[in-house]
Amino acid sequence: MGHHIQKLGGRPSTFKFFVTHCIRITLKDHFHIKGLETSFGYVEWIGTFQGKKGTGKEKNIESELIRQLISVGAVPIAKTTLMVSTWAPENDNNILGYSWNPYNQELSTGGSSGGEALVQALRGSAVGFGSDSGGSVSMPSSYNGIYSVKPSPGRLSFKDAAGSGLGNLAITALVGVMGPSISALRLVFKSLMETRPWEHDPSFLPIPWRNDQEVPPDAILSFGFMENDGIVAPHPPIARALEITSSAVNNKGHQLIAWDPPSHAADSIHLSHLFPDGSPKKSIPLSDYENLTLEMIGFRNQYREYWASTSSHTKNSRAVDAVILPVSPYAGFKPGKFDYSDDADASDGVPAAIQILGRDLEEEKILSIAQIVADAIKEYQAKQA
């Protein structure tokens, strides 16, 4: 590249090169790119700015994430389809239709970032970006056999992105990175941190990439391990994936302890508002909303306290480094059928995935731990072959 710059009369020393230069990326149709429509899955939004006409903003606004990506040399090549209005575990809209799993076209890609997961599964770009509030990146990633990371609030910018409910600060949408490898996720995450994004987005935490937070490959770790949350039992493919992971991690000398946190039934606080009984959703008094938010904060605090308490069960007397657990109870599902007991054989041929849970603001640590676990699984399976 420097040679070509010299031929054009430039000097290589005047240019800053990034390892992300010319990397082709795709993004969920959440993000504004100048010159392109942003539909968010709504037919009515086509030709408008988020449903409004004559604003002068149509195709003229660029999301902060796009600015950062372009500044490090990445090349956005496409936006990907999503579930209408998001907040759903599958992918369908009246613009591009339903998104089917490339491994088994009787099954869904999952959602709401299913279009991006599909593109990554087919290697349509080097890395992609989705959004996530309650699994919209992790679930489709698991069904499509790719890697993803959902970071903590304040580490990737959602500024100037389209969406619904953007004023809800209790449960916020986050940017997730999706790609073919953990190293790809790390590369992009680290490159974005080098742009000092907190100088442009007030919701961003001023935390650069911290190399000293990464875990060395030969570290001996302790994990929480959850096979079943007491509410939903995983399908056989997921149970088998957990069994393989457990054996692989144990064989490398890491410690696994049973993970028995505050009941996940508390998620009903969240789900009752996402999936009402079909009747029109009624407004609630601000005091009731405040009480729901306090319940959610209380549950988060209980979860953090439980995590800290695991130090009394580990060999090194430190809290577990991460938790290994299912992403969802199944490896795939048929359109509109979310009953976990429905036709387990239908998932034949699709990937089976697990997830690794870390504490807030430990992205550097959790990505390096994920690589350690992935390497352990690869080594274990090679020995079993």
From TrEMBL:
<feature type="domain" description="Amidase">
    <location>
        <begin position="23"/>
        <end position="265"/>
    </location>
</feature>
<dbReference type="GO" id="GO:0016787">
    <property type="term" value="F:hydrolase activity"/>
</dbReference>
<protein>
    <submittedName>
        <fullName>Amidase</fullName>
    </submittedName>
</protein>
<dbReference type="Pfam" id="PF01425">
    <property type="entry name" value="Amidase"/>
</dbReference>
<comment type="similarity">
    <text>Belongs to the amidase family.</text>
</comment>
<keyword id="KW-0378">Hydrolase</keyword>
<dbReference type="InterPro" id="IPR036928">
    <property type="entry name" value="AS_sf"/>
</dbReference>
<dbReference type="InterPro" id="IPR023631">
    <property type="entry name" value="Amidase_dom"/>
</dbReference>
